[in-house]
């Protein structure tokens, strides 16, 4: 990589107090670049690299969707199957109007639910709850919190029945992001496979894609010295947290994976890839539900992923995954045949827009020498203007001379 680009990456990390960064990129199935910058621990004694496992939080939803699609391809279930077929006691779905398709697209009408606060953390000595599947952070115990009771999807169904809520809309009318919907999908995978979700995900997705540095649950996970655990900001720097080990929420946000492995996962959407059929890939990336909170019409939700159109070409789009309060990643996939994939991860407490210029620098420098770098640089700047129309954009930090 151009030394000037490396200097800019290190400068961005120092300027914004980001402890480190891992990036991987490939094109047409060939790895172009994979590296780590900085460290994974507060003492800066252990460097991270492209094989360092990070908590990827809600990117796990894409893995869960892929596992559902594998069941669909085998004729084990229909995406239009009513949720009541799998959870007969679930009151809000008892009329058969809620389908698996609605769960995959966050359009079941469920509001934000507090079930995570009663999910059991099997790694906590006191098994106290209160975590968030989106953040992947270990929950903080509270004397006021009720005793954790939710360990299985059936426990979750009973808890949803206990909660008094009115659906936000009829199924299929409104996108309302809901972790519990993917927890229910995880329970369906367990019902159909006869295995714990972590085992089924490993057999059906992680192993076929050779994601050898990816884990769900504590089984087989490396020691803390090899993991990019959450780093929580404190007055004098950072302190290490831990991953939230709540089996109920594994399907919504429990995966730990390296930058290289995230590339392998998103690469499975590409033409000619063996994990999923062309029909399944097409359905997963199709813009199923518009994202009302995003400006314009360039964002939509597919199956377990958010779809971003980053220019005006009809088949040019992007996929983004991020977690606001844990190590996370940002994979990007231009959709024309899935030629290029890039993932970036960082061991920070909160998502920071300063990561965007680091991502753009790594992406362009890794994948696009010469005049192509100039073209992709313009593409990134155009995407930034779309994502931040008010001008509150980190785009000005992206250098303009990466082709040098």
Would you write up a description of this structure?
It contains 11 helices and 13 strands. The protein has 404 residues and is of the alpha+beta class. The strands form 4 sheets. A 4-stranded antiparallel β-sheet has the order 2-1-13-12, with helices on both faces. A 4-stranded antiparallel β-sheet has the order 8-9-10-11, with no helix packed on it. β5 and β6 (237-240) form a beta hairpin. α1 (3-15) runs antiparallel to α10, α2 (60-73) packs across α5 and α2 crosses α6 (197-206). The model is unreliable at 127-142, 313-331, 333-339, 349-354 and 365-404 (pLDDT under 50).
Helix- and strand-based class? alpha+beta
Regions with little confidence, pLDDT below 50 for 5+ residues: 127-142, 313-331, 333-339, 349-354, 365-404
Assembly status: single chain
Shape estimate: globular
Q: Number of DSSP helices?
A: 11
Query: Would you count the extended β strands for me?
Result: 13
Fraction in helix = 25-40%
The neighbouring-strand order within the major sheet is: 2-1-13-12
Biggest sheet, in brief? Answer: 4 strands, antiparallel
From the N-terminal CA to the C-terminal CA, the straight-line distance is: 11 Å
Mean pLDDT: 76
Strand content: 5-15%
**What sequence of helices (H) and strands (E) makes up the elements?**
HEEEHHHHHEEEHEHHEEEEEEHH
Radius of gyration: 20 Å
